[in-house]
Amino acid sequence: MIGPERTIAAQATAAGQGAIAIIRMSGGRCMEILAKCTRPSLAERLHPRRAVLTHLLDAEGTPIDQVLLTYFPAPASYTGEDTVEISCHGGMLVTERLLKRLYRCGASPAEPGEFTKRAFLNGRMDLTQAEAVMDVISAGSDLALRAAQSQLDGNIGARVDELKDELVHVLAHVEAYIDFPDEDISPDTASALLSRLGNAEEQLSGLLGSAAAGRLLREGIRTAIAGPPNVGKSSLLNTLLGYERAIVSNIAGTTRDTVEESIQIAGLALRLIDTAGVRESSDVIEQAGILRTNRALETADLVLEVMDASLPRTAPLLAENRNTPSLLILNKCDLGIHSDWQEVSGIHFSCSTGEGRKELEEAIIRTFASQLPCEAGSSLVAINARHQHELGLCLEHVHLASESISRQESPEFTALELREALVHLGEITGAVDTEDVLGAIFSSFCLGK
Fold it and tell me: CA-based, 20 to 30 A from 68: which of 118, 238, 355, 393?
């Protein structure tokens, strides 16, 4: 990204037509730029964090739009810089003209994520909080939103800081011994250091254990609806969604492609995937659909195996050795349960009457209960893939440091491992400035953030 000396501007609300749009501007030249496109009286009326009704003017002094303008002086702003938020009418033309006017007066177009990057660089938030901004925006379920808000509040950063303090304490003791070798480390002291490192390993393992939950919360539980033709897979999708999304027909092979939609169950996001019925077929298009079904099964977090309980039992669709969790849905139970299914454990379901929906939802929650993020009060902690990578490397170095002390190796080796562990912790919160990491994170943001 280009240097922070620029004053940047961008639309902070979604592009398109609406009642109101917000344009955000941040940088040291905010007031200078405003002076060029507003009436002189604005300077007297403008007070920090107080909205002012005014006009933004074009080069000839003609009003472009009547706006509400709010000024946030540095450092008490989102970015830590002088910041202005302009609430204008939400038409696409008016926002485009206002932005062009700001650019002509000296502002530069903001890059994706540049406002939040400046907030990080100016110490308004750590890197985990900056990442949480997009998690809050893109959250697809109540639990995902709570986890993102917990991260935005700094809970992951606080856990990392606690670990950092623990490791710094051990490193300080080891380096003191390096500087003063005559002061021998007693067995009791070594035991205390190993205890601290053991505690750090437990905390690191606990955080790493939330990685799977973090993926499920952020991406949703990929749920494949599978089974033979005509057992009611598409009907189940429509029933769970509450509207007709997939075509339903008693003609085998109607579903030729996967159909994907998202719903929320008990705070969890489910990405439902309706698949083609699996059977022997000479139809080239149907064969392609069955191939996509197999791919969906391979990548699914959960499989809902649907069977027609009103007909004689057929061979199960899923291989016994498949690792993916699955739930058996005995559909069409309103037509009566065939004797073949009487002793089979499954969820009795009817797409016609809605019977079994509550039982299905409860079964899904039970299936993933052990993978939900650990709660601390009302906080949810769920790390992302980048955190997982750095924490895993940190854990390796902490373990090596423990082994070094246990084997009574030269303290320089222990100190080296601890320094490496601290470097990886620093990567998580951004204490170590790595431009590639920052670029990868903030490039995924939307404009205006």
Answer: 118
